[in-house]
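tool_call predict_complex ligand=NDP
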Amino acid sequence: MATNPHLDERADGRVALVTGANRGLGLEIARQLAHRGATVLLGVRDPRRGSQAADELAATGLSVAALPLDVTDAASVTAAATEIDRRYGRLDILVNNAGIAGGFTGPPSAATVDDLREVYDTNVFGVVAVTNAMLPLLRRAPAGRIVNMSSEAGSLTRNAAPDSWFRDYNAIAYQSSKTALNFVTLAYAKELRDTAVKVNAANPGFVATDMNHRRGHRTVEEGAAIAVRLALLGPDGPTGTSQDDNGPVPW
Ligand code: NDP
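tool_result ok
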């Protein structure tokens, strides 16, 4: 990676939590952060699959551990925060990665409120719940970083463009959940602007994972890079932005 004054390229000594980290982008973000020296907690809702993922990374010499965390379960979120507090007393990096596409695609007029509610539970309410639970720990870190995994599919500007890539893509539940997540990102950045905590949204591109039946044209390594970059922003780095590998993405 090129030298960049806005970026701390190493993460030695930092404690990171990545939600939804047993597979896909979350697992790769965890791997890349641990590779840079961070101690990474893999937030996982299935302890068995989580331990397997953590064991595989740990076998390569990385400092990782699985942490039970279902972002839609208030008790699970509280227990995870309590455990991080007990073990480390602070959290340097939170990557809100856990997300679902939901079962619904089709025109908005065919969607039910429950279709939206299901996706919002994880992609929006889950992020707010986890962020609020972890914020006291992030405030205790010298340079707390929050990264929310967003999607250009939720960018109002990109969707409104006449030649939009998303012209024929109809996924109101998923897309509007990411639009809401973008606002959530801005709202926390505003609240935290006079603190050391930075909050940004990462857009990984169209990545081949289970979420899209492996149809994406980018690899997880490529898709994870922007989240890792935002997680390792130096003190001069931005807050309240949405970014992909090429820079800011319009809201
Ligand atoms: P995957 O479907 O491959 O993985 C999703 C992960 O989220 C899994 O680990 C899953 O756990 C976890 N998860 C889902 N619900 C919960 C929950 N309630 N609590 C905890 N963990 C949960 O998706 P991707 O890796 O592709 O996506 C990761 C993020 O990146 C998502 O937020 C997605 O919206 C975003 N993104 C992805 C793009 C892509 O092209 N792939 C493009 C733009 C954004 P489990 O194994 O238990 O189901």
